[in-house]
Fold Tryptophan 2-C-methyltransferase.
Amino acid sequence: MNRPLVTLVNPNLVHPPITPYALDILTTSLEAAGFEVDVLDLTLIRDRWRHAVAAYFGEHRPLLVGVTFRNTDTIYPQEQRVFLDSHREIVREIQRWTTAPIVGGGVGFSSMPFALVDWFGIDYGVKGPGETTMVELARRLAENDSPAKVGGLIINLGRGDVRQIPHRSQLLADGRVELVNRSTPYTRRSGVRNKVDNLAYYRRGGLGNILTKNGCTFACAHCVEPDAKGNRFARRAEAAVVDEMELLTAQGVRDLHTTDSEFNLNIAHSKAVLREIVRRKRADPHSPLHDLRLWIYVQPAPFDEEYAELLAEAGCAGINVAPDHVRDDVLDGWKVTGRGTRFYGYPDVRRLCELAKQYGMLTMVEALLGMPGETAETMKDCVDGLLALDATVVGFTLGIRAFPYSPLGRDLAARSGGTRAVAGVQSNTATAPILLSTLDQCHSRVEYERQFMFDPMGGFRPVYYFSPALPEGARNTHPGDRWLTSLELLWEWVPPQDRPRVMLPTAPGLSPEDNNYADNPFLLRLTELGYKGAFWSHWPLRTEIMGDTVPA
């Protein structure tokens, strides 16, 4: 008897390609539940995606189609490139070829799921981890039962009416721990037809990926992850995580980047994962884990010497740390735990960089400039403070994307109240003052979410925020104006001798450099030449690499 078929689609057309890890996670749970699963991956064939959609659905009749929307836009304040138009074009092409219901998901999708279910014109949506919900939905459809029985499922009733079936409890709705497969390794494949090809992505993009825990208990003002993924840590079994690492490294995928919100938060679990890697390496001199190069995201604290030693022995090659600023008065109330308390200071960042260097690991330290309270003085202090660190690379971002359910987005809506333009709210495509209403003021979640991406006429207008205490704020700026004076100050403050190791935001005409990820010329050149690992680790040699003709 043939098993019911579920087809999972990756519509991401941006390069360098990023492995669609979510589809491996979904495939693992759906196959374990008895479904046949195909992956239609359009990223690596982006120039002929239409043909691929027609050819696949011309031959296959799936029960359900799942589409993962990893990003809605670049979130890069100087570019503000939106991906939703190409995503909807792909969705519509799928709908031309199949009558199977379509369900959307992914972290980008989860930042505004009601609006996107409506805008894409799809049947269902899943906010947050999807493996449990997808299995239950597929089972209901296979048994001709009602999808309205699937807790947490978002359902499109038509004409802008999009509703969510309640979860069993509020704890499940907010934390989502039970929605994550925490006990088994996720099945990772390479070179298998109609599955995610992890080795192909590694060869074309330079990195694989690994998840050790889902969700985040912190409440940083700019971040969507506690809302989009869950506000509790869903910790995966250490053995399952390392089984997966061994599987990938044995396939030749040797550089793995963590996809946790932050690897060192809930540090006891993080250390347990590292100890399991170390244990297996010590026990087996032939383990593929000896080839592992691990790249991680962390916060400045907690991070002690034991942790640095474990990272180094496990094979950590580089650490991306996000203090976001050096001034306590800027960070207070912004980078906080779930209880609203600060958890690190500038000395923690300095100590982390020292430990990383001591144990032979590269570091990238990133600042997020332009949040509430930022002035030219505080911005200059941040530049000076990060340049004083013994870091491999220092990166700066100016401005922040405001999402519907981030603390910043909610605050901006409350301050605007649908009638007042809030100073510092900006969009490159804005043609009129940006007015944001609170959720209570809106008729529906669709209406509330849409205003953070679309203008009243339906055109793309992603919402960004720049502190009005920066130089531009002294003028009566139009919401579509670019914040170029502050940008130029950043370039002025970085001495020429430091430029090779610094990633600065840029704008057309300011510099030939570009530190945005999407279709970045430097990154495309890196992958063309065969460089591996986090792209920032090669940033200091970008001039030589861009002129090189010899593969890495």
Observations:
- The domain at 5-166 is CATH 3.40.50.280 (Rossmann fold).
